Every structure is written in C-alpha cells, then in structure tokens.
Amino acid sequence: MQTESGANHAFECTEVHDMDKLNTTVAVYATHPQAEEALRAFQNTGFDMKKLSIVGKDFHSEDHVIGFYNMGDRMKAWGKRGAFWGTFFGMLFGSALFLIPGVGHLMVLGPMVGWIVGALGEGVVIGGLTALGAGLYSIGIPKDSILRYETALKADQFVVVAHGTVADVSAARRILERTGALSVDEHRAGTA
User: Fold this and answer.
1) Which of 7-21, 50-64, 74-88, 147-161 is predicted with the least confidence, judged by mean pLDDT?
2) N or C: which end of the chain has fewer CB within 10 A?
3) Is the dihedral of CA 60, 102, 105, 152 positive or negative?
4) Is there a domain that residue 6 lies in?
5) DSSP code of residue 65
6) Does residue 9 form part of some domain?
7) How far is it, in rounded angstroms, from Cα 20 to Cα 5?
8) Angle formed by the axes of helices 166-177 and 32-45, to 10°?
9) Is pLDDT larger for residue 17 or for residue 101?
10) Is the residue at 110 inside a domain?
C-alpha cells in the first residue's frame, strides 16, 4: 500500500509483498581485507556467486579521484580501494556507484544493485532510510536491521549480503561467521 504524504508528494511504502521477500544473510565487516576474505571463502566453497552482494565506500577524501566504467564484460575502477573493487567486478554480477546523501559514494556489486534501482524506479521512500535501505526493505529486511547496516557503511565498514533458499542462507551464515564479521544476521522471508 502506498500513501501520499506532505506537500512534497513523497510516497511512503508501508507494505512489502511476500513474493518480493528473500531469505538473506547479512554480515558487516570492519575492513576491506575481511570482506575480501569472506567473498573468497564463498568462492572456495562453490557458493553461487550470483547470490552475493557487497557494498562499501571507496574513498575517504576529495583528494582521491573515483570512477568506474564498463566496457562489455570488463570493468575498470579507480580510487583508494580500486584494486579491491576490481577483484570482484568479474566475480559478482552487477555493479554501480551511488551517491547517497548522508552516506556518501557507495560501490555496490551484485544483485543489490537491482534491488536499489528497483526501489528507486518505483519511487519507494521509507522514512529514515536511504535508497540502499529502500532496496533492502523491498526484499524484506527489517527497518531496524537496515539502520544498523547504513550506520556501518557511514563508519566505512562493508556489508556482504547472501540470498537464496533457507539452506543457502544457512550455509552463508556458517561461512560468514568463520570470516571475522562484526555481525551476522539471518533474515527469512516468512519472518521478515
């Protein structure tokens, strides 16, 4: 259900349809080497890499040029962590750079790109959440968890998201718990 609120004609989403909800496991990492270790652990176990996303900031000051481009199946990135992001362009499917007010420039790799773009395309605005938060909310992740993930990103941490069947996300949780995550949360479609 959507309701119009205020003179600025913003729309607030108050319901997520069950068919849009996904089973997910979300982990927060303090550093990019830890997040990289997690993605490599998934790769080494044969986990379907199309079911993984990562998001994080790329730079800390205006002194570093940031950018990326896509030429066919090749991606090139620059910035303080360009080599880090470049490692995963071929491993994860989908990539984007978003400028999110209050958070900054975020690199997003994996299906999360589609979730964010989908939420933006539908004009979904959820009180207190960014475009990233709206994308996560659209797949059934609870608002209080999203606020923790957005806070982590503001603190230059990294968020890794795995989705799939209940068995997939349970396996993902076991992998993520072994890779030094600050937190690991499992969100099931039937309980979100």
Assistant:
1) 7-21
2) N
3) positive
4) no
5) -
6) no
7) 24
8) 130
9) 101
10) yes
